[in-house]
Amino acid sequence: MMKKLFTALLSLSVACAHAQNADSVTIRKIYNEALANGKSYEWLRHLTKQVGPRLSGSEGAQKAVDWTKQVMEQQGFDRVFLQDVMVPHWVRGAKEEAFIHNGKQKVTVPIAALGGSVATAPKGVEAGVIEVKSFPELRAMSPDKVKGKIVFFNRPMDPTKINTFEAYGGAVEQRANGATEAAKLGAVGAIVRSMTNVHDDYPHVGGMRYATGVPLIPTAAISTNGADLLSKSLAENPNLTFYFKQNCESLPDAKSYNVVGEIKGSEKPDEIIVVGGHLDSWDLAEGAHDDGAGCVQSIEVLRILKTLGIKPKRTIRAVMFMNEENGLRGGVQYADLAKKNNEKHIAAVESDNGGFTPRGFGIVGTPAQREKVTPWKPLLAPYGLTDIGAGGGGADIGPLAQLGTVLFGFKPDSQRYFDYHHTMVDRFETVSQRELELGAASMASLIYLLDQYGL
């Protein structure tokens, strides 16, 4: 009896070792293909340089839809299609103006309207300034002190956080909700320190939202150098005034699309694995890291599998989501359609943290589902993918969680991401070809393992 048990265990061990070796060989081939013959870098060049900024509802967004659809069709994927989605259409208008008025001296500072903000009056707004570091600090003030003033939110990202996304999360609420909190106390405008640890002259923009029943006041991001100057000037002269003028406008919702390409599963075609990024970018940026990189990496995943002749058991979809930056309409629409069509999405992988050196994947799922990934770690570790465990998935794939889908967020090194995030310097030239291609190979390797073993 013991001999039979030993023989069975030995056979199982040999089979597992053989499978691991076969997987190791395939993953090596995936990396070889991405690094020697990768297409993602040239695709990114076209998306950033020929298409450019792609804010939802814009001409650039439509060009991006048309082009990515064409790219996937040219790759010969089994199916390429569009999903209709109505998106917000906010436009910036003429370039913003701002200055610190300190006595007779006017010092110009760089600002940019936050996405979704209303415009100032045609002549702009000028008022005294209240500087705060937090909402509780603002709420503790009497309305009389704030009424008629511009509230200046000057809480920096915490530089001691090793994970810069954690630092971002600790500061971004002032960008998202600052105007509402200021308006509740009668402020006439809100200025928000840019979300970056870098000291520069580029406003880092992003989305904001208004609460119902609260006056809509204009709000803008100020560069970190501008914020430091304003703070220093206020310390020297609390009675100074700040002037800003912006010309933004919210137009009626516009029709746009998610762009989807897929390779049909050979054994379980009704089980779907998604890999994707968001196609839209802020209007000031080429959107190279955010999120052109994630889009071209996702298309590259399917190209690699097809080129290597890897016939997936399950259907693999690359999805270019529309409207992550100022509405998340594409991600919500994709999940709604998946539910309506009774589609079974077993896993989704998103790349929306830049095109930097791969570090791992965050997983949103049950402990048992995360445990199924454990045997894959030795296969991925040789490629620098050591940070694999509980973590965030991604904004666009987040709505799929309601369907029981396990979410994976691709995690590149985070140290440089917020140097470029939501600014005019998020350009193609800031992306390393090798880092971008390593990321695509990392995602393709995870997709391969998810397809082979499921969850």
| Number of spatially distinct domains | 2
- Helix tally equals 14
CATH fold assignment of the largest domain = Aminopeptidase
Low-confidence stretches: none
Note the main sheet. 8 strands, mixed
What do the pLDDT scores average to? 96
Instruction: Specify Rg, calculated over alpha carbons.
Output: 24 Å
Strand order of the largest sheet: 1-10-12-11-13-16-14-15
Percentage of β-strand residues: 15-25%
Number of strands: 16
Q: Which secondary-structure class do the elements indicate?
A: alpha/beta
The CATH homologous superfamily of the largest domain: Zn peptidases
**Separation, N- and C-terminal Cα atoms:** 33 Å
Highest CATH level, the class of the largest domain: Alpha Beta
Fraction in helix: 25-40%
Order of helical and strand elements: HHHEEEEEHHEHHEEHEEEHEHEEHHEEHH
The coarse overall form would be elongated
The CATH architecture of the largest domain can be given as 3-Layer(aba) Sandwich
GO molecular function: carboxypeptidase activity; metal ion binding; metallodipeptidase activity
Keywords: Carboxypeptidase, Endoplasmic reticulum, Glycoprotein, Golgi apparatus, Hydrolase, Lysosome, Metal-binding, Metalloprotease, Protease, Secreted, Signal, Zinc, Zymogen
Pfam families: Peptidase_M28 (PF04389)
Protein name: Carboxypeptidase Q
List keywords for this structure.
455 residues, alpha/beta, Aminopeptidase, Glucose Oxidase, domain 1, eight-stranded mixed sheet, carboxypeptidase, CPQ, zymogen, metal ion binding
